[in-house]
Amino acid sequence: MRIKEVEVIPLKIPFVRPFKISRGYVGAPEKPGEHIYIKIVTSDGEVGWGEARPMPTWMYETMESVYTTIRKYLSEALVGEDPYNIIKIHRKMEKIIAPAVTIGQPFAKSAVDIALHDLVGKLMGAPIHRLLGGKIHDYVELSALISGTPDTIADYARELWGKGYRCFKLKIMGDVEEDYKLVKTLNEAVPEGLIWLDANQAYTSYSLRLLLRKISSMENIICIEQPVPTFDFHGLSRIVEKSAIPIAVDESLFSHYDLIKLISMNALDLLVLKVAKSGIRTSLKIYALAEAAGISCMGSGMTESGVGFTAALHLFSTMDLVAPADLNGPQFLKDMLVKGLVIEGARAKVPDRPGLGVEIDERKLEEYRVKLRL
Ligand SMILES: [Mg+2]
């Protein structure tokens, strides 16, 4: 049995509400999210699904580049290969597109990695979590994503509190006064909720100090994620040294190679894992290195639909994360494109059927499929 073909399907999925971060829109009702689904088919007719959720304002890969990277380059590593050879396929992918400093087209490679795990799980009759050593949690608790202005976030946060959410990830924009108003508003709306701030690189080590002065006494803030630009490891070090609030890294960390540098510079308190940027295999390497260094992990996503979302459920079910996972596709997307996903309030059930354990609704793929102009 060999991999026979690789299909790459570009999709646009509508947003039911706007989602803005410091670097621009993630999506809005008039700005659908861009997704790439990958379908790996074997000579026996078994199928593995993967998803990439490119967002070039967050990281350089585009919908077009993920599409051509997989179709023109990575599929070479796959076709004719035994799908059980995930390690070998990763090595082939690294030969075809070299890692330079960090992974090299990480989103495209992660989509392939997810699809291979789905496929191998189905071939072995085991859910993905079992391939990783078995789940230690039957449910993954979810954080609520809060993005907006001080006058729009309070009601929405209270509504989500009512649905069972206890952790609120708030997008801040880099303006000290406005961000302080946002944090204060959220804190008053859900006084017993945990608050996880994400600046998406909007601050400098200097300007963040001004915000920290105002919010450091708020005990329910669990961390500030990625305050400074992706490359600013020295800025992170200076902040970590002084901040009473723990500092988490996201855009500065795609692989265990990035993590060893961050650790050696004392540039983080926490890190954010995402299958979108590191796939399953590299996420496990990051997690192991973090454990050895005494760094705790958080889980997040890129507003993926059902495939990426479910892959994250499997991965996170094998880990102890310090906060509910920020997997917010169900909050924002009109459709998750899969059947069999069980979400109860603020928690998602880890599937136990083979592979991802959810069924891709191929009729819906056709509904949301778009034609790329290359
Ligand atoms: Mg982030």
How would you portray this structure in words?
By secondary structure, this protein is α/β, with parallel strands linked by helices. It has two domains: 3-125 and 363-368, Enolase-like, N-terminal domain (Enolase-like, domain 1); 131-360, Enolase-like C-terminal domain (TIM Barrel), CATH 3.20.20.120. It is 39% helix and 20% strand. It contains 14 helices and 17 strands. It has helices at residues 63-78, 86-96, 106-124, 128-131, 150-162, 176-189, 205-215, 233-242, 256-264, 275-278, 281-293, 306-316, 329-332, 362-368, and strands at residues 3-13, 19-21, 24-27, 33-42, 47-52, 139-141, 144-146, 167-171, 194-198, 221-225, 247-249, 270-273, 296-299, 338-339, 343-344, 347-349, 359-360. The chain has a seven-stranded parallel β-sheet. Strands 1-4-5 form a three-stranded antiparallel β-sheet. α6 (176-189) links the parallel β8 (167-171) and β9 (194-198). α1 crosses α3 and α6 (176-189) packs parallel to α7. The two termini are 33 Å apart. The structure holds magnesium ion (MG). Magnesium ion (MG) binds next to loops. Magnesium ion binds at residues 198, 200, 225-226, 250, 272, 300.
Q: Tell me the Rg in angstroms.
A: 20 Å
Which ions and ligands are bound to the chains? magnesium ion
| Number of helical regions | 14
Low-confidence stretches: none
CATH architecture of the largest domain: Alpha-Beta Barrel
Overall CATH class of the largest domain: Alpha Beta
Proportion of strand residues: 15-25%
Chain-averaged pLDDT = 97
**Main pleated sheet:** 7 strands, parallel
